[in-house]
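Appendix B. Raw example, untouched.
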Amino acid sequence: MTPVLTVVVPAYNAAGYLGRALDSVVGVAGVEVLVVDDGSTDDTAALAQQYVDRGLARLIRQANGGHGAAINTGLAHARGDYLKVLDADDWLNPQALAAVVERLSTGPEVDLLVSNFVYEKVGKKHKTVVHYRGALPTGEAIGWQRTRRFAKRQYLMMHALTYRTAVLREVGLRLPEHTFYVDNLYALVPLSRVRTLTYLDVDLYRYFIGRSDQSVQESVMLRRLDQQLRVNRLMLDHVASTPVSDRRLRAYRLHYVAIICAVSSILLIRAGSLAEKDKLWTELRAQDRWLYRRVRWSVLGQLSNLPGRTGRRVSVLAYRVAQRAIGFS
């Protein structure tokens, strides 16, 4: 019998926390668990094999190719009608997962199911839940025309998304290898093929954040700015080269790339790379003036490009406020 949902777990040197992730998803009816060991040098594969031996998971081992390569492999081998990515240091709420599977197996077929995620930040007692109330009606199968304006924190991160597997394959999704931050491409590129979606207001994904070596820690992001910028440019290339007719989807994609461009700009300010920041925006203006105008002169585009030293300080301060309000690194 075809599984309703494949949960792909990319894992690299994740032996210290992979068990928590797997324990949160194994044994849920209709769910296939697929661990992709991306060239780990610790006991990740041995730990995953324990679940394989109990008939609870599948394991694919490959040479290290990075997060994108592991997702690509998971997509190629997934058997489920739907697919969700679960990073090895995160976990899902089993009750919410059962509700998602029930909706996917009994409700009208959709291309995308959106659910909530929770920032499980180290040392933070109050956990921030990112939900999509107001932007998406609850429990209905809708087209993009039924969506409403997304609030600033309501962008569709990978953690919120469960795609129909065929959509990912039809759009030809292939994420870059040996590159961090490709989850932004995963959350953007397939949307051009999504015709129907539904929102289930459950807190499914628990996004663990705060490890010192985590890719989204600001100090780590500053060291990997080249990869952040590569992904940012690929996102802009996609939007510029893949027009969509639905104005709501068009507005959402602009909303998303404006957020990522603002993050890149603030990181470049923090790194003192002002020439590289100017280059990012100059390239966009040369590439697509329409897209440049809408992203550069959005609220976030203006806030991240305030002139002078004082303006840059205000931009960074606004970023810090958002960090504290939302709970991300």
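End of appendix B.
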